[in-house]
Write a structure and sequence with these properties.
heterodimer, A: 63 residues, three-stranded antiparallel sheet, 0% helix, B: 377 residues, mainly alpha
Chain lengths: 63, 377
């Protein structure tokens, strides 16, 4: 889904559970909460706050 | 001296203020409240309500046609010519085209069927209006409220039943604002929880060539099929070509912003001003408002049901929640699909999938208007 990254709710190194909100992505003037797909740890964040992203772009990596 | 004061008083609006005017001023105040405080489509309801307010102040004559002796008419009467001659709605459509990304539709052409199904409400409501005693021309204009597309509704009504312009515009824009309230109960009623949880695959990438060919091809096919749809579809697709060809950025920006805003003001004020007391404060308006919500409800239901039907035959399942977005009302209806999808499954992102039927619905409503014009124009 193409949109703009509004803010990250997590930082590198955080432990997350499946369903936790990782970041807020704005698309079509709507704020979408992007949840974690599985339990794990945030290894790296690939884009900055305010970045325009497209479908398929990696946003962050959860291990 | 006494006579002068008396004639001055008789010349003020207070003397000419009839009960009907007072009633319409109250209606315009309610619409202003809905627009400003409740944020119901404020960009349209605010100018519509104020036009209605001005036109109901007696002796001001803002909607007076010019007289034979060369006396010019009222200001808003001239703006109204843009509605009557069918100029403003297609210009708004050009702006809509310049703002709309048709890629979700190109990537998933099945969306077109969902967008078409949601237009079913138009035709059911048309029949309903006939049963309630409206003429075919009026019924066509009322049915198009179900297209959930303001410019299309105004374009068709100005052609078929200009007397109903005020109530139809108010009904169309109010219901569009109410989409997040009207649609979800219907969508939940017609789907099971597991259907709402269906995840759809990411849409494929759409190339620049496809994006450029799309507006040209759609214009060609649709206008050959339904010639009276040419002003709406032609301008919609011209605006979209501005957007996708990437070499006329200035034209695209003007069509999508400055021009669109200017025309919206002219259209809103003049459509509002058509709502005089004798045309608005009657049983017909109530019937139109009732038929309008029926049109929205049936459109929503048909989109959802067609998505379920398609699922019986295809391997790539469609989440039926995107079917409701086919009523157009871009992008509110798509947002409703997204919100409902996420309620069922928090990792479900239907927004872009719902944009497919959503933008198809815009084309669908314009075609439906063209069909009505072919039949009754």
């Amino acid at each position: 889904m193409p949109g703009t990254v509004l803010e990250f709710k997590v930082k590198e190194g955080d432990a997350v559970k499946a369903g936790d909100v990782l970041l807020i992505l704005e698309a079509m003037k709507m704020e979408n909460e992007i949840p974690a797909p599985a339990d794990g740890k945030v290894v790296s964040i690939a884009v900055g706050k305010g970045a325009s992203v497209n479908a398929g772009d990696p946003l962050l990596t959860v291990e | 001296m006494g006579a002068i004061i008396e004639s001055f008083l008789a010349g003020t609006g207070f003397a000419g203020l009839a009960w009907g005017n007072v009633g319409m001023i109250l209606v315009s105040a309610v619409l202003l409240y809905l627009g400003i405080r409740k944020k119901f489509e404020p960009l349209l309801l605010v100018p519509i309500a104020f036009g209605m307010f001005l036109a109901n102040l007696p002796l001001a004559g803002v909607m007076k046609p010019p007289e034979a002796g060369g006396t010019p008419g009222g200001l808003i009467w001239y703006l109204y010519q843009g509605d009557m001659l069918g100029i403003w709605p297609p210009l708004i459509f050009m702006g809509v085209g310049a703002m709309t990304d048709f890629a979700p539709l190109i990537a998933n052409p099945r969306s077109l069927l969902l967008g078409a199904a949601a237009q079913f409400g138009i035709f059911v409501t048309f029949l309903g209006a006939i049963l309630l005693g409206f003429t075919a021309k009026e019924a066509g204009s009322i049915g198009i409220i179900g297209g959930a597309d303001g410019p299309t509704a105004i374009f068709l009504t100005s052609r078929l039943a200009p007397k109903l312009l005020g109530p139809i515009a108010v009904a169309a824009y109010s219901y569009m604002a109410l989409i997040p309230i009207i649609q979800p109960p219907i969508m939940r009623l017609l789907t099971t929880r597991s259907e709402r949880r269906i995840k759809m695959e990411q849409l494929r990438h759409v190339s620049r060539t496809e994006r450029i060919i799309f507006p040209v091809l759609v214009s060609l096919i649709v206008i050959l099929m339904v010639p009276p749809a040419a002003p709406l579809i032609g301008m919609l697709m011209l605006g979209n070509l501005f957007r996708e060809c990437l070499v006329v950025d200035r034209l695209k920006e003007t069509a999508a912003n400055a021009l669109m805003n200017i025309v919206t003001i002219f259209l809103g004020v003049s459509v509002g001003a058509t709502a005089s007391a004798e045309r608005f404060l009657n049983v017909q308006t109530l019937k139109i408002i009732l038929l309008g919500v029926l049109a929205f409800a049936i459109g929503t239901a048909s989109g959802v049901l067609l998505a379920k039907l398609l699922n019986l035959f295809s391997k790539n399942k469609i989440n039926p929640l995107i079917g409701s977005a086919g009523v157009s009302a871009v992008p509110m209806a798509a947002r409703v699909s997204q919100v409902e999808g996420q309620k069922a499954n928090s990792s479900n992102f239907l927004l872009m999938h719902a944009m497919g039927p959503n933008v198809a619905g815009v084309i669908g409503s314009a075609i439906a208007a063209g069909v009505m014009l072919t039949l009754f124009g």
